[in-house]
Amino acid sequence: MTNVKFPTDFLWGVSSSAFQIEGASTEDGKGLSTVDTRKVKEGIADTAIASDHYHHWKEDISLLAEMGVKTYRFSISWTRIFPSGEGEVNQKGLQFYDNLIDELLAYNIEPLVTMYHFDLPQNLVDKYQGWLSRETIDCYEKYAEVLFTHYGDRVKNWISINEELMVMYSQDFNGIRNLDEKQYKKAVFQMMYHMSLAEKKAFKLCHELVTDGKIGPANAFQNIYPATSDPLDVEAAMNAEEFLSYMLLDLSVKGKFPENTLRYLQKENLAPETLPEDEEILKNNKPDYICFNYYASLCAEVYTGLADDHMPPFFRSNMYRIVPNQTKSLSEWMVFGIDPVGMRISMRKLYNRYELPLMITENGYADSEELSDTFEINDEKRIGYLQLHLLECSKAIDEGIPLLGYSAWSFLDSLSGREGFSKRYGLVYVNRTDDDTKDLKRYKKKSFYWYQNAIKQNEFIVDEGKKNYDNK
Ligand code: BG6
């Protein structure tokens, strides 16, 4: 048995994102974004109602207060503030987040605000081709200015963009559907470069407008091990990590590409177009911390031309081949290998490379769940997952990593990528399914009570040998 302790100022939290919980996708003047217009699979819930947080926000915040979290990470929907992504501000949209923020502060919960979590205004795609054009950078900058000016007196912790890696590859998020395969392959890196420029502008504005504020990116960190000790697999893993994580983070922190990656992009004719004046904005504006989302580790092996089209697009490459981590347990929804130690390894890699404070902004266990007859959810596996990952947080802090906090994904059951409500991560159950919105009532899962107690004690006891989510 290990007693796992945390510093007194550790930021215990939970996370959510606007389009995954709010619903009300066209209410009170909200405009459509790419996640509203994307095609969802037949039988899977869309953003119209989601977890109906827009109408349950007061009750939801009282649940957060009951849970005892010190911080709550949520995202602001760009199209509630600017329905077209540009132009006139929607006062009702501003008001919604005013209410939310004030209520959080009344409970002493520190807001941690993601400015943009996958939901790009559809109008910016229709009018400018979204992140393919520099106009979208200007629109994001204007949006950032409104957020900092309006909420900066109360919100001190900001996240510029959630998971650029997903946005640049996913047409559901970036909205770019009119290019052929070759053009799209190149467009991915142009979108990435423009997002990196946009977030640098947000860092600059945040530091100017919220003088006691802090800001950083939220990276989908891919911790990749070589599949074997064959040096070619080792090199493949290095390539994959550079390509999937360090390329974006080096741009965020150092304002430049890793040399190896840049040369690869140039060789493959994929390098983005840049302007000389970008240099100054990229070099001079640094984040205050790095937020990262971590669910699992991966392995890479040398690329031999074997097909990898069963993998999500961002894992397909001719530099490496991504494979699941077979030494770790896999489950129905956790398909790459659950690896708590890998989260500490990730922190070490990130801190060694960037020497910035870290925040874990997503980490959680996905499962298919149904309410019992007594309205309970006995999510022991989720508790096991959280315990073992938090244990690694505590060890990382002991090893000298400045880890500011941990926000579990997710607060409520919410719309999951392509799987809607058939896959759930919440500590709070939302009573609906994909095809039946039922009464949308909230039920605290067993993990809610476990987390509440851990936060209250600022410590918990774990049996390291007992991994109750698996058998490895
Ligand atoms: C992260 C996203 O990529 O992973 C979240 O920031 C997402 O928005 C989470 O919900 C889990 O992914 P999925 O597809 O299982 O919901």
From TrEMBL:
Record Gene3D superfamilies: Glycosidases (3.20.20.80)
SUPFAM superfamilies registered for this protein in UniProt: (Trans)glycosidases
Keywords: Glycosidase, Hydrolase, Plasmid
Pfam families linked to this entry: Glyco_hydro_1 (PF00232)
GO biological process, one term: carbohydrate catabolic process
Family under the similarity heading: Belongs to the glycosyl hydrolase 1 family.
Protein name per its UniProtKB record: 6-phospho-beta-glucosidase
Species of the source: Carnobacterium inhibens subsp. gilichinskyi
Lineage: Bacteria, Bacillati, Bacillota, Bacilli, Lactobacillales
